[in-house]
Design a protein that fits this description.
Strands 5-6-7-8-1-2-3-4-9 form a 9-stranded antiparallel beta sheet, sandwiched between helices. The C terminus is likely disordered. The longest helix is centred in the last third of the chain and has 14 residues. The chain is mainly β. The chain is 14% helix and 38% strand.
């Protein structure tokens, strides 16, 4: 059984305002779960899962698959744009962080062709992006407007 690769990283959350904000993210890969998939865990507990190849290609050229867009920004940055019903979140990563993470995932990945993957239009395995939100952390407010007691 392959070990799970986890790397704690920092990204910059790009906002409409003049300042960006550093946020901790978790990069995760589990070849036993799905050798084509990487995960980006956000501070609010949301987990985005998408094809490892999407990040790899995005290091060189802009690419979009489903709700995820990735593109290089200069020589040292990578932008990851995540679309959901809640809106758009844009993160800026240091390329070297992602290169190191992806190199570790390639070392753990099974041999090419071992994964049962439907080929994409260009013949490479394709993983559809998905998003998992955390469960409720506290009681939902009363529909009549009352707030739960605190303290």
């Amino acid at each position: 059984m392959s070990p799970v690769i986890e790397e704690h990283a920092r990204a910059r959350l790009i906002t409409d305002g003049p300042l960006t904000r550093p946020v901790p993210v978790d990069l995760r890969y589990d070849a036993a779960d799905d050798p084509r998939t990487v995960h980006i865990g956000l501070p609010d507990g949301t987990d985005w899962a998408f094809g490892r190849d999407l990040l790899e290609r995005g290091l060189r050229t802009p690419i979009e698959r489903g709700a995820v867009r990735v593109w290089p920004c200069g020589r040292t940055q990578l932008i990851v744009e995540l679309h959901s019903t809640d809106g758009v979140e844009v993160f800026q990563f240091e390329i070297r962080t992602l290169i190191r993470f992806l190199a570790r995932t390639r070392a753990q990945a099974p041999a090419a062709g071992a994964a049962n993957a439907a080929p994409s239009a260009d013949g490479s395995p394709e993983k559809r992006p998905s998003r998992t939100r955390p469960g409720p952390k506290e009681a939902q407010p009363d529909p009549k407007g009352a707030q739960p007691a605190r303290g």
